[in-house]
Each structure stands twice: as structure tokens, then as C-alpha cells.
Amino acid sequence: MTRAIVLVLDSFGLGATPDAETFGDAGADTLGHIARECADATSRGPLALPNLGRLGLFHAHRESTGAWAAGITPPQSVDGAYGAAREISSGKDTPSGHWEIAGVPVRFEWGYFSEREHSFPPELLEALVREAGLPGVIGDCHASGTEIIARLGEEHVASGKPIVYTSADSVFQIATHEDAFGLERLYALCEIARRLLEPYNIGRVIARPFTGKSADDFARTANRRDYSVEPPAPTVLQKLHDDGGQVVAIGKIADIYAHCGISRTIKASGHDALFDATLDAMAEAGDRSLIMTNFVDFDMVYGHRRDVAGYAAALEAFDARLPELLARLEDDDLLILTADHGCDPTWPGSDHTREHIPVLASGAGLAPGSLGIRESFADIGQSLAAHLGLAPMDDGTSFLPAPKAQAR
Length: 408
Known about the structure:
Metalloenzyme, Phosphopentomutase, alpha/beta, metal-binding, manganese
């Protein structure tokens, strides 16, 4: 069977890209800085990722940065094909990264709410309040989700006013209490916001429900929902779906692609549940299937919160489970591990960072060794198209070996 499995380690960057200075990210290095802090912390020891290492992770990081990660003893040889890819899309956000991975770079400029305070146009908030029948909104600023919920959650519950906030990404986020405000009411509010934001060219509206009784125990739930605009052209997911293949989207993948080209959506919360869902999908997937999973906690729980120790522990837990997946690969499967952007947990602020992403691939006739620095994330989409028997994408260069000529 010809199948593909794509695991997106959300935010797992491999070092700043040549254009990172434009984004204020020169010197960012998600993997490198996590490894450095682990190596310097005598209480825990070096970052231990033996399975990712054998797939070529640390070799790819060296190609990106020119140096081995601190505290790492790289394997003598690798079992996978490895490289690092640069982004040609205009931003460093989640939709841009994922769409480019799927062969469709974002060459237009997203709209942004750049003011740190009073971030949103008054007329936008007035329309939202009016159309949704709200008593008002609170927040209206750049913020980390956990921070603003802790700071304003009690006021929200008491007043009924949703918390609205943004970041350096093209995003409008709405946080409300699942019980006090209502989950379906939050989703309906986000749909109104999605429509009102069309003139502003904002990439995503994100519903951020939370529970708890006070600032001491407020916690975001697994019922997050992203309302993305549709990709500007058919992705490799859409092309496979339209050509009769199956696309299984696990985690937030379906939301990121605005449910375009998705055959089946599987929701799961937490990396173990996402990994379990991926293994279950592999057991059921037939010929010409694409399984794509986003491991969001690397970004949402650890990267944005600048939690280096938590990020390191999550990487090691992910690495420990990789053999389960590797053992289930069939001869014709193509496995790709990658990311959508960086989110260096040692970097100032709480935003994404413009970095190379890993391209770790195995199967489909690939020989172990270097794939080099890829000029676009779209090389992944082009390789998937080649593997799954689809017409070539408009962007990207496949890193798969050329098909052998048929004997005459």
C-alpha cells in the first residue's frame, strides 16, 4: 500500500532562517536553546532524543546552524533522510506554515492587529457586541492565553463579557468560560467574528474555552476550535481527497486547513492521545491514505509559555513513543516528521520565531543521509504528491528518488 504519515511537532524549530532578522528573530533556535539549557542544568542532564537522533534530527540541526546542539552525542550513523527547510511564506504563523507544508505557500500579506493595547478597531468590537448581543468585551490587547485568562477570567464570569485578544500572528482569539458563558455560544460568537473579520484579512479566529472557579485554577480545555480562512489554492490534501484518496486529520489539522480536503477528522487532546489516535489511524488506513497529526502542546503549552523544562520533557516523551510508530510502518509507507514554525522558549515575549523546520523522512525508497537545506516547506508537499501518485504541485521540489525507468 502507498500511504503517508506526517507528524507536525508544532513549533519545533531548528534555528533562525536567513530572513529571521526581518521578524526580530535573528539568533532564535528552539532545539538548540532547549538543548543548551538542559546541558547546563546539572539536575537533569543533556536532552535525550535517541530515536529522533537516529532519524537525523541533530544532523539536520547542525546543517541549519553550523554546530552540534549542546550536550548532544550524535549517532555515528542515521537511519533516515534528514534536512531543514526554510519558509517562503510571508509570515511565521500556523496556517502559513501548514499550508506551505502542503504545497501552497502564502505569498500575500496577512492582516495584523499590531497595537499592543487597544488592539482592535472600535468599529469591529462594536459590531461584534451588537450582532452577538453581548454586554461588551474585555481584553482588547496582545496577550498569552493562559496569562489573560488568569488575569481577566473572574471579571469575565462576573460580567458576561468575553475576553478578546491577539498576538503577533494574524489572529483574533476569544476566551470564555465553558459553563458560565456556554461552549456552543462561544462557537457561535466565533462564527460571527469570522464573518466580521473578512475585510481585515485575518487568518484565524480561535475559540479558547476554559473552566475553573477562580484565577487559581482556571484551565483551558480541549474544546478549542480554529476558524481559518481557506487555503488560496488546492493543497496536496485537497488534491488527494479529490483524486479518491483518504485524508485523515488528527488534532487541529482539519481546522487549520478549514476542513478543505479532509476525509476524516479525529479530535484528541494531549500528546499521548494524539499519538494513540495516529497509531489507530495507521491500523485502519488503506492504499493512498495520508495521515496528518499536529502535536500542538509543544507550541501551546510549552513554547508560548516559555517553559523550557516542559518543552524538553515533552520532546523526550514523544521520542520514547516513536518506536511504536516505526514498528508499524509498511514497506511502501512514507513517514515525515516536521514542524510549522519555531517558538523558542528562551526568546523574549511569547510569539512564534522564524526558524528552519526539520524534515525527517523515512521510507518510499529514501536512502539515509542528508537532504540538505530545502528552499521551501513546499518540498514536503511536492514529495507527498509524488509519493501518492498526484500531479505535481506548483511549488516545491520533491526529495524522493526519481522513479526508475520501466524496462522496454
